[in-house]
User: Fold these one by one.
Assistant:
Number 1:
Amino acid sequence: MDTDSLKILGHLGRIGYSEDGKPRLKYRAIDPADRYVHCSCGKPDCWTEQIVPLREHMVALFRAIVVCDFEGQFGIRGQAEETWPGVIYALQMAASVEDVFADPSHVDDSEAGLWCSAAWEHDEEDREAASKYAAALIIFNFVWNAYEAATEISAGTLFSVDKVPVRARQLFKAEPGLTSDVWAFDISYRVARHICSKLPALKESVDSIEKKYCLSGASAAAELGRVFRNYIAHGADKMPIGDSRAACSRFYSVTRMLLLLIQLLILRRIQDPAQPVPLSVNQDRGSQRAGLLLRNLHRHEALWLEQGLMPAVED
Ligand SMILES: [Zn+2]
């Protein structure tokens, strides 16, 4: 067997077997996204038990934009692709990532992993870490694109001389009431800040957000997002070898915060928050007030849907 053929075995390393002998994938690169955020405290009222996994959050946000647009909440009753184009496309792409396969040993010409089982096992761990890292980076980048697009559309002509991430910060600073009643906004920001402050290259910038610049609420979150995105875009983040979980959680904690900021950017542009919108444009699932939907869509539906729910139309 030639070297290229042997390297295909790297893909097979992901296949394991269940107790009844059926083949199964040992992991998918997006597993950490589907587990974010998980807390091990075990308390039923823990806030992490109430929040949906990240990809569900993206789907709920995508659909909320579509239904609000369907009801003419953004002025013209049109197509969400026309009113929030970059947001819709990027959210769909972020939510669409099903799996990624990355193999860091591709650059290695020692071929150690092909002849030594310990080296092979080590390469396997690196492949898992790199695959999960690549998925997290891709998802983060798409959500960042959605956030920048949402900022430009929502801000209109406001703060137009600033770069987009600074515009967002300025906008949120000028409208501090936006986060009120947005469930778990503050804790999501604090988690992201805590995780980012553990990165030595970011500690000073993260500490300055509140201590030096006295930012709070959504403007502090916008600044944290800007700082983290620059850190990633400038190549400062190290590829995680053997420790993918911490690397993924920093991407996903900021991704969660960005999704909430996008909700705020949409929320400030809806015309009538008290007006009911259908929960789906395709299925009859009842209606909910537009403002309440945008403040709660990241929670499990059973926890908030009853609140002022408009029942589905009976046939
Ligand atoms: Zn907990």
Note: The longest helix spans residues 117-155.
Number 2:
Amino acid sequence: MTSHSTEFSDAIVVGGGAAGLCLAHRLTETRPNTLTLIEPPDGPLRPAARTWCYWNAGDDGLEEAVSASWSVLRVHGADGRPVIVEPAAFTYRMVRSGDFERLVHDRLTRSDGGRVLRATAESVRSVRGGAEVRCTLPGGWSLTLRARRVFDSRPLPALPPARTRLVQHFRGWFVRTDTGRFDPAIADLMDFRVPQPAHGLAFGYVLPLAPDRALVEYTEFSRNTLTIEEYESALDHYCRDILGLRTFTVERTEQGAIPMTDAHFPRRAGTAVFRIGTAGGATRPATGYTFAAAQRQSRAIAAALRDGRGTVPAPHGRRALAMDAILLRALDSGRIDGPDFFTNLFRRVPAERLLRFLDGGTSLREEWGIGLRTPVRPMLRTAAELPFLPRRSRPVARTGESHR
Ligand SMILES: Cc1cc2nc3c(=O)[nH]c(=O)nc-3n(C[C@H](O)[C@H](O)[C@H](O)COP(=O)(O)OP(=O)(O)OC[C@H]3O[C@@H](n4cnc5c(N)ncnc54)[C@H](O)[C@@H]3O)c2cc1C
């Protein structure tokens, strides 16, 4: 069925995942006159429910959607020795996608001029005076929306050209044990006691939700994802042989693949069309964390719109991207030992400074200090060769997908 109508909004956000929800949330605070969030109906374009973790100091307006938080973090080196840090004033927080979606949808529907439109965006393009989104509604009708600005978070069909292309890929189990086996005060960010792959690195990740409940994940930074059977076998080994869980049930699973690359992600896709989220380069290359950057960028976009500026600031600074490009290449080429690299960072750099560094909030001087606590020779050698390496295209399967 095709029937056409055209509607107008001040701003349109395409895609209600992490970045789209963060931006819609901030825009309801600054109130453009009309704001439409477009999210496809249930089906293949809608990712399964996920958890997003990030660190933050103080209140950020997401408290209602935060389902757990930790002020103590732990990393286990490959030698089994733990590093325990308290990065006050930062806490590590977990937001479930369903809770965040409810919070933002409620805000939108209660605000004047805000709405959530269930539709599939077919095309987004600049037109005179703004931009246009052509959508298909669930009944098959076509709808054209126009706005002064469109923020598009739809995944890219392929990664832009890059020198290094790693993937952070993982599978997690929400486990329940018969007795209390977890300490809900401590989150295990990286546990390198797991067997290491021939290329890249692997670690366990444990977010305890109660003494008898936790999200336990097996993660690799490497070139290729694994089969479900391979993740399950690695998780089973981690739970039984390393965490020592004897009897437990798996209540839910979570799986994903996040690009770790030095590709350039253009933010502008037209005069009035901006890409946000992973598609707009919000994923921090060296860590895969995206949620905190999406939040920071959303606040900056909302402030720019409120002040009548049409700019969208970059999600990450140039220095951070340059350092990440060196680290990714050093990891990919096997010049540095990944588990030692990350464990030593937590051992040698004050945790609050390290987290601030990952948020792009450190000074040049602090960054030199952090650089000196890494294996200087292989990092310098890698830095010296990077400018001579071209970024190349390679069509790849869509990343960021989660399967349950
Ligand atoms: C399982 C999983 C766990 C993760 N955990 C963390 C974490 O703990 N911390 C962290 O910082 N990062 C995490 N990430 C990485 C990153 O934060 C997420 O991938 C995040 O969802 C990226 O946000 P996004 O908005 O760019 O993409 P998405 O969240 O994937 O959003 C894209 C949206 O576009 C919509 N869409 C697609 N096509 C169309 C269309 N044609 N029309 C309209 N809408 C469309 C989709 O429905 C979707 O809602 C995780 C990733 C995965 C996969």
Note: The pocket of flavin-adenine dinucleotide is lined by residues 14-20, 38-40, 45-47, 50-54, 120-121, 153-154, 254, 256, 258, 277-279, 288-291, 400, 402 (CB under 6 Å).
